[in-house]
Amino acid sequence: MKIIADENMPYVDTLFGELGTIEKVNGRTLTADSIADADVLLVRSVTQVNAALLDKNTQLKFVGSATIGTDHVDLDYLQARSIPFANAPGCNATAVGEFVFIALLELAHRFNDNLKNKIVGIVGAGNTGTAVAKCLTAFGVQVLLHDPLLQQQGDERDFVSLDALLDRCDVLSLHVPMTRTGAFPTWHLFDEKRLLQLGVGTWLLNCCRGDVIDNQALITVKQARSDLKLVLDVWEGEPHPMPELVPLVEFATPHIAGYSLEGRARGSLMLYQALSAHLGLGRDKSLSDLLTPHWIEHIHIQNQPDEKALLQLVRLVYDLRDDDRLFRNQFLNVNGFDHMRKIHKHRRELSVLTLVNSGQFDVNWLSYLGFSGVEL
Fold first, then answer.
1. Are 105 and 115 spatial neighbours (Cβ–Cβ below 8 Å)?
2. Whose CA is closest to 270, among 259, 285, 260?
3. Which residues is 347 bridged to in the sheet?
4. Using the 8-state DSSP alphabet, how is residue 294 labeled?
5. Are 260 and 92 in contact (CB under 8 A)?
6. At how many degrees (to 10) do helices 127-139 and 93-110 cross?
7. pLDDT, tens digit, for every residue of 125-182?
């Protein structure tokens, strides 16, 4: 069996090596000729899986995407050809939730502000939006949700309109798929008109799809409004962000909000499990088989950490400033954006750090935030 896999998917050899011959490829430049004899295709969001890509292949048995979103996959076409498909919903939700939370701590520190005093609006309450809400709620931050699709489907959580979110929130974090049709399209959901509605001093974060914000309009609005603070992990025109936009952003990264080692490993593992089930094989591998220990595993804490101390703790696991610096230095290089994603193998999730409670205080909120905890 011939397996073609995106070269940026981790642990492919460990997981899939026993199932067939693996060929690793640049997912952004895949062609119909290059996968004509593939039995299994494993991709990420940079690959458009459609008739144009698959029309020369008559033997494809399985397509897997190590992503939450499926907007890059023509699901109707796969179904029409009876090609099984699997993705990895939720695989990187924890990573995205922690990324947003860490970015907010960094913003609060940079501007001598207090995150707990903010009201955060989350646009899109699926896996990643829910993970963001989980972190913020654990820290005691008020969260409002907007998701008309989930609301229409009967989700029992409290939702507010987008206009109410714009009126009431100090922070907006975007977590929707990119859709151009349907009842609730998200393409340019934040156009110039909506961007101008943002309240004074709003923090705007986008960790879903670049096209959800009109980036040219964002440049125009931001140049006129220095009060707005931006965190962008995704960009229109990826892998070529608009160069004029980058200097206007407080923290800029190359679509790696979900790129924790745990999240990426989960994505590969979920596809392995789906393919194994399709082939009628046992699933004898787990996440613990793939991951190595973090460089620091335990730290003793004597007192309840305040916001500044919490930032120091999360930086032991992931320092967002490093990726921001690298992005600004390399995004204009030839293939710089994709190179940064390819080499991004250092980030871990908060669960790798065990906080040993050496004092007499409640650590439940730290565990709910994501840290592992030990009571003494």
1. yes
2. 285
3. none
4. P
5. yes
6. 50
7. 999 999 999 999 999 999 999 999 999 999 999 999 999 999 999 999 999 999 999 9
209 a catalytic residue: yes
Among 238, 250, 262, 349, the active-site one is 238
Given 146, 188, 255, 347, the catalytic residue: 255
Per-residue tokens: 289:
């088989």
Sign, CA dihedral 256-262-268-271, equals negative
Distance CA 138, CA 118 (A): 14
What are the DSSP calls for 187-208, one per residue? TTSB-HHHHHTSPTT-EEEE-S
Helix (H, G, I), strand (E, B) or coil at 359: coil
Q: Tell me the C-alpha distance between 254 and 246, whole Å.
A: 11
Token duo for residue 361: 């205080």
pLDDT in tens, 275-284: 999 999 987 7
Question: Is residue 266 left, alpha or beta, with left meaning phi > 0 and alpha meaning psi from -120 to 50?
Answer: alpha
Residue matched to tokens 């409002």: 144
Given 44, 146, 188, 209, the catalytic residue: 209
Is 238 assigned a catalytic role?
yes
Residue position matching structure tokens 């895949």: 30
The pLDDT tens digits of the residues spanning 328-361 come to 999 999 999 999 998 998 899 999 999 998 887 8
Give whole-number Cα distances, 12 to 49, 98, 119, 264, 371, in Å: 19, 25, 41, 11, 28
Long-range contacts at 275-284 (CB < 8 A, ≥ 24 apart): 275/16, 275/19, 275/40, 275/62, 275/64, 275/86, 276/19, 278/61, 278/62, 278/84, 278/86, 279/19, 281/19
**How many angstroms separate the CA atoms of 22 and 167, rounded?**
52
